[in-house]
Structures are given as structure tokens and as C-alpha cells.
């Protein structure tokens, strides 16, 4: 199964280099890196296929960049598409577990993610990350040999997932109406459910999320969140990211206007 890892990035070159070092332990057939207005990124991953994508009116084109990376992987005849955020270091078993799951389960395959503490001086060690990482409390953690059905599309995340080109086409990729941070993941999960595409949690396909200081509600992405929440509401009829939106309201940064829309305060 010809496997492509697709990573989108702007900055975070140290994170990308750590990811590339880990991938070298079990190299994919292709590593497609999408540089979002980052001409220096190609030097970080000299063996990767680099796709350049400009910013979208100043915002990170996360949805469009993922689509561009998948498009290039398919042009290079990938059979399995593994999307991995630049923050994520793949475990040695990640690609193998995704391949095994894809051979017997048609759908969107999500691996568990463990969150790492701040890196020590000199960076994270090459081994032992499983002992350092803490699993996300709101996501399933199947056994290393398990594949569990995932009936809740809200739990989909793009940090680490895999699928085939045929399934990608059924979902339709990421909706490019989203610009910047927030909403496109939940939209993808619901688009998959609407298309009748199953989602699964793949035990053993661990990725280790590198610490970068961001936590809680990302208030620095206020305008992106409000814009993308409105895009989602217009597409699906309900508001996503309510935890973030409520936090923004409590901080006095956003409110619901007379039309029932979330807007900047």
C-alpha cells in the first residue's frame, strides 16, 4: 500500500524536523509537506515533496492546504493518505497500524494522540515518548490491537488520521470556505457522516503532540473562530466550538447579536 504522509506547516521548523526524524524510522513512500507562505520550509525536509500555498487574505488556509497536499499525494499515486499535523511526532507503529486498519476497515481512521510536556534541553528523546505523553481525556484510547467504531463525528480531529483516495472523494475533502483556525475539523467529521463514511479509532497508531505553549481557548484566533463558526452554522444549522465561544464571551471578546450570530464585542 503506497503510503503518503501529508503535513501542512508555517513556521514551527523544529517541530517539523522532529517529525521528519521520526518518520525516517519507518519511512512512508511519500512525505508531502505543504508550506503555507513559508519559503524557508523546504530546507527543513530536503527529502519531502513540498507544495507551496499562499495565505488566504492574511489567514492560514488550513483546509485548502490539506486539500492541496492530498491532491499532490494522489498525483504521485498514493493509496493511503495519512494526514499528520506538524506538531505531531509519529510513533514507530503509526504507519503500520494505519495500513493494517485500512486493509480491513473502509472509512476515516483516527489514531490516538498523546500530549507531551515541554521539551527538555536538546529536544525530546528519540525513544520513551509514550511514558512522557498524556492522552486527550475526551477521546477514546483503544488497545494497541483494537479498531473501534467512532459514531460521534464531533470527535474527529485532523491531528492524525488516515484514509484512502476513494473515501476522501466520498467525503469531499475539507471545505475551503473555512479560513484560518477552527471549525474545519468538525465540518469534515459531519461531511463524512452525511456521506455514510464510517469513522474508526485505531489503537496503536499513536502520535505524540509536541508542546508549544498553546492551551485553552485560542483567543489570538478570535476573528478566525467567529468567522468559521458562522460558516459552520450556515452550512449545518448549529454552532460549533461552543466551549470556545462561551469562553470568548466570558472574556468580553464576543457576544451573540440581535440576529443570533456570534460577533466580536
How would you characterize this protein structure?
With 265 residues, the protein is an alpha/beta fold. It has two domains: 3-213, Spore Coat Polysaccharide Biosynthesis Protein SpsA, Chain A (Alpha-Beta Complex), CATH 3.90.550; 215-265, no CATH class. 31% of the residues lie in helices and 21% in strands. The chain has helices at residues 13-23, 62-75, 94-104, 129-132, 165-171, 184-194, 222-236, 242-250, and strands spanning 3-9, 30-36, 49-53, 80-84, 88-90, 108-110, 113-115, 134-135, 147-149, 160-163, 199-202, 207-209, 254-256, 262-264. The strands form three sheets. An eight-stranded mixed beta sheet has the order 3-2-1-4-10-6-11-9, with helices on both faces. Strands 5-12-7-8 form a four-stranded mixed beta sheet. The chain has a two-stranded antiparallel ribbon with strand order 13-14. Strand 13 and strand 14 form a beta hairpin. The longest helix has 15 residues, at 222-236. It is globular and about 55 Å long. The model has no long low-confidence stretch (mean pLDDT 95).
Amino acid at each position: 500500500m503506497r503510503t503518503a504522509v501529508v503535513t501542512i506547516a508555517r513556521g514551527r521548523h523544529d517541530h517539523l524536523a522532529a517529525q521528519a526524524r521520526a518518520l525516517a524510522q519507518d519511512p512512508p513512500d511519500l512525505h508531502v509537506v505543504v508550506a503555507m507562505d513559508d519559503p524557508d520550509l523546504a530546507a527543513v525536509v530536503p527529502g519531502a515533496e513540498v507544495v507551496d500555498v499562499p495565505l488566504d487574505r492574511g489567514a492560514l488556509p488550513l483546509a485548502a492546504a490539506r486539500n492541496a497536499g492530498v491532491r499532490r499525494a494522489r498525483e504521485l499515486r498514493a493509496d493511503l493518505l495519512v494526514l499528520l499535523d506538524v506538531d505531531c511526532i509519529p510513533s514507530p507503529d503509526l504507519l503500520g497500524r494505519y495500513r493494517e486498519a485500512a486493509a480491513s476497515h473502509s472509512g476515516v481512521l483516527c489514531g490516538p494522540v498523546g500530549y507531551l510536556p515541554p521539551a527538555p534541553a536538546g529536544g525530546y528523546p528519540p525513544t520513551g515518548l509514550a511514558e512522557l505523553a498524556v492522552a486527550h481525556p475526551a477521546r477514546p484510547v483503544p488497545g494497541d490491537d483494537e479498531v473501534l467504531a467512532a459514531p460521534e463525528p464531533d470527535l474527529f480531529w485532523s491531528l492524525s488520521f488516515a484514509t484512502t483516495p476513494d473515501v476522501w472523494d466520498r467525503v469531499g475533502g475539507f471545505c475551503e470556505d473555512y479560513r484560518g483556525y477552527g471549525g474545519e475539523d468538525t465540518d469534515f467529521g459531519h461531511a463524512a457522516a452525511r456521506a455514510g463514511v464510517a469513522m474508526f479509532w485505531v489503537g496503536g497508531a499513536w502520535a505524540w503532540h509536541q508542546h508549544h505553549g498553546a492551551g485553552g481557548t485560542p483567543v489570538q484566533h478570535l476573528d478566525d473562530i467567529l468567522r468559521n463558526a458562522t460558516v459552520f452554522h450556515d452550512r449545518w444549522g448549529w454552532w460549533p466550538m461552543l466551549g470556545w465561544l462561551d469562553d470568548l464571551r466570558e472574556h468580553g471578546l464576543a457576544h451573540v447579536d440581535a440576529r443570533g450570530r456570534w460577533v466580536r464585542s
